[in-house]
Amino acid sequence: MQSKRGLCNLLGVSLILLLAYPVFAQLIDIAKFKGVEIPFRLKVGGIVTEKGIYNLETLKNPTTPSCYLRIKKGTKILCLIEGERLQYEAYGMSKMTDPSIPQKPRLKMKRSAEEKVVYFTVETGRGSRFPYLWLRFKLDYEE
User: Fold this and answer.
1) CB–CB of 105/125 below 8 Å?
2) CB neighbours of residue 60 within 10 Å
3) Nearest-angstrom CA–CA distance, 125 and 99
4) Tens digit of each residue's pLDDT (9 = 90 or more) over 111-130
């Protein structure tokens, strides 16, 4: 009788944790960039986005070092791209005074015509919730 009761309690707790896990596994916002004009068509997997103005968001997985770029048109999410983390040349206390590191989040877009790719580079800056992150996202494009 006692073992049945213990087993039921264990199953109950396991069920609650299993149902609550998706809440903890959600991505965390790092920075948002509204009204970004993209002057070419982007290709992400099977999706092609047209030229135009989009909202870009960078997100972080709370349990892994993975970071993502979300491209939105209004409230509709078009795609989610995994990026890579880059390292600043400055380390330790020198990061705090390095003039190349921005105070607020910054987005840069660089096109490589010979590779037919676009690099979106995001720096979270010093004053953000996740400071000193330098992220790069690589996407194919069409003229």
Assistant:
1) yes
2) 20
3) 11
4) 998 989 999 999 988 878 88
